[in-house]
Amino acid sequence: xxxxxxxxxxxxxxxxxxxxxxxxxxxxxxxxxxxxxxxxxxxxxxxxxxxxxxxxxxxxxxxxxxxxxxxxxxxxxxxxxxxxxxxxxxxxxxxxxxxxxxxxxxxxxxxxxxxxxxxxxxxxxxxxxxxxxxxxxxxxxxxxxxxxxxxxxxxxxxxxxxxxxxxxxxxxxxxxxxxxxxxxxxxxxxxxxxxxxxxxxxxxxxxxxxxxxxxxxxxxxxxxxxxxxxxxxxxxxxxxxxxxxxxxxxxxxxxxxxxxxxxxxxxxxxxxxxxxxxxxxxxxxxxxxxxxxxxxxxxxxxxxxxxxxxxxxxxxxxxxxxxxxxxxxxxxxxxxxxxxxxxxxxxxxxxxxxxxxxxxxxxxxxxxxxxxxxxxxxxxxxxxxxxxxxxxxxxxxxxxxxxxxxxxxxxxxxxxxxxxxxxxxxxxxxxxxxxxxxxxxxxxxxxxxxxxxxxxxxxxxxxxxxxxxxxxxxxxxx
Length: 478
Known about the structure:
mainly alpha
């Protein structure tokens, strides 16, 4: 392949590749999560969750919107891609080094526990390594989502294989950040080899003049990422600081299980956003129809998932996380409310605000969620611990959705139809069936199947009464 311009497969194939990668990305953690939480136990797992949260915050400083900016530039000027990368990569490396130094110093002083300190220092190295090794944003700009998908699956398989084969005792928790480093390095080597064949090579150019121009635009996306990180990870840090590692391990296990279930919702909304961006300016009527159908599909999937997860919280936590995490079931029950609310926030903020180009409104909606989350964390975590953090998470997701609806209401004309009631009514029927089964000693898998069958039958009958609106929304290409 001789140039960066000759790297564009069919757009629909791109969506298929990315969707397949996301399916793997959400299925593989369902393999590793039970192993990690059971081997480490709540105390040590809490230290690992703490390290991830701390490094995540410093990761915003290591990448202040630079990859988003670079992706846009590569997409807009593919012929010049090779020349666009050096200043961006050099700025990424510089920001990562500064961020890592700022991370290690305070952590060495403020973190008393040696395990937590070692995990943060090791995992923080990934900030520096990924500054030059993470190249999926380049492939995304070139519209080579097949390469993005393959690299994601490749890295995830390395991590999954390492966990399955090597993690045996809680004392070997250091393997987790090491596996992250190995996966980043291996993915980077393969990715840059592919890019080299397209005439794009890894090179750096230290040019502060170019940096100012880049940062002027990229910093906007960096602020949005920082606010998003606040309402996603601030609760983890506060639970760890105020309640200790064991409490954070319990909450982190519940949160990770919720994320694994919510992943399929996120996959759906992420596929909608490109369609929304393509239709918003060209055909407002088609855009509104897309949002209406996406909202129906979101309700059909997320409402029963939340209801079923809440009713079966004790059984699901025991099955996936193990009996030592039984204390996390109440927090998981509350977090399941964040599944539909998080889906709504992603759909409304992402497809209704971000996709049509209302980036300032998008940042404001995310900022509102960050403020709500921080206030509620401060108020609720001291008395309620993980349950308070779960309430703050769910309410923050709902506040983002409400803010996005208020700011994008012009796009939502006709989006809320009577058919939206069907998933709620059908989930009520499913809840009754689960309550009937609750006294019996039945495996949770059979309860899930029974609940799903009741829900599907109820939603099918309700859809018949509504003129098969749901079926029309779900039908591909309708």
